[in-house]
Design brief:
It is built from ten helices and 14 strands. The protein has 310 residues and is α/β, with parallel strands linked by helices. Helix 5 crosses helix 10 and helix 6 crosses helix 9.
Length: 310
């Protein structure tokens, strides 16, 4: 199976590294616009093959999309961060142009590929791909909820002392500090409801820490995180290639589910070899339903900046 990762920055390189190390793809192609950058990252990663015991072939290319031909999955991480003085509309306009051009070139050589969108604002970029190309919606998946959920589990573990592998917890809604919804009411630790282990104040703190998890890392690092995003992408890619039928929170196009239409937002979906197979509707409480609707409204407001681009 062949996977292409567009963008050889920290997130893209981490995606390629984790996919290779887990050894579930036969080939990974890294593509970047910067001359020699993807080739260098690929060479560096290939020199770890004997150390990390993987067989995956990793190659890099500078903007030659023919090298990505016949990819099963294409991961788009390319885009620019918001710069001082830049409006939200300017950022979205620039990244929309990048994501649209990248998607067009990828689909030219891999028309049957599943597209995984990581570029920010992720929900809006996933919506852009849905609206710009004649693809089945199940083949377009935004990766954000998996990352947010992994952060949620980390903060739960820190608060309870329970190992993350025994924690079942999910974040839905938009992939943003004010739009994500950590579902504390449905979270479980070793089969027990989280609400039985933590006080209401502690539950609120875990949810709050999760929502600012990305911003906290950016403040510490001076840039966006890359290990957890890369691992989250590789987990999704593995679930697709191995047809695991796992339920994972991903940004997908809603057409009536959760009483919402015409937007991409994080909801639990069943993942398989064809992308996402179905959307699962959770039994949210009244407060969570209100939060989800607020998140929908916020994402739609961000999507309005795509006017004229789709």
């Amino acid at each position: 199976m062949k996977v292409t990762v567009v963008g050889a920055g920290a997130v893209g390189a981490s995606c390629a590294e984790y996919i290779a190390i887990k050894n579930f793809a036969s080939e990974v192609v890294i593509l970047d616009i910067k001359d020699g950058f993807a080739e260098g990252k690929a060479m560096d990663l290939m020199q770890t093959a004997s150390l990390n015991n993987f067989d995956t072939k990793i190659t890099g290319t500078t903007n030659d999309y023919s090298k990505t031909a016949n990819s099963d999955i294409c991961v788009i991480t390319s885009g620019i961060p918001r710069k001082p003085g830049m409006t939200r509309e300017e950022l979205i306009g620039i990244n929309a142009g990048i994501v649209k051009s990248v998607s067009e070139n990828l689909l030219k050589y891999s028309p049957n590929a599943i597209i995984v969108v990581v570029s920010n604002p992720m929900d809006t970029m996933t919506y852009l791909v849905n609206k710009s190309f004649n693809l089945s919606k199940n083949k377009i998946i935004g990766m954000g909820g998996i990352l947010d959920s992994s952060r949620f589990k980390t903060y739960i573990s820190k608060s309870t002392g329970i190992d993350q592998k025994f924690i079942d917890a999910m974040v839905i809604g938009g992939h943003g500090d004010t739009t994500m919804i950590p579902l504390t009411s449905l979270a479980k630790c070793d089969g027990k409801p989280l609400s039985e282990l933590l006080t209401n104040d502690d539950l609120l703190k875990v949810a709050s820490d999760t929502m600012v998890g990305g911003a906290t890392l950016t403040k510490l690092l001076g840039t966006s995180a890359w290990y957890a995003p890369g691992a989250s992408v590789s987990y999704l890619v593995k679930a697709i290639l191995n047809d695991t039928k796992e339920t994972l929170p991903c940004s997908v196009l809603l057409e009536g589910e959760y009483n919402s239409n015409d937007l991409c937002i994080g909801v639990p979906v069943v993942i398989g070899k064809n992308g996402f197979e179905k959307i699962l509707e959770l039994d949210l409480n009244e407060a969570e339903r209100l939060m989800f609707q607020n998140s929908v409204n916020a994402v739609k407001e961000t999507n309005s900046a795509l006017s004229g681009l789709i």
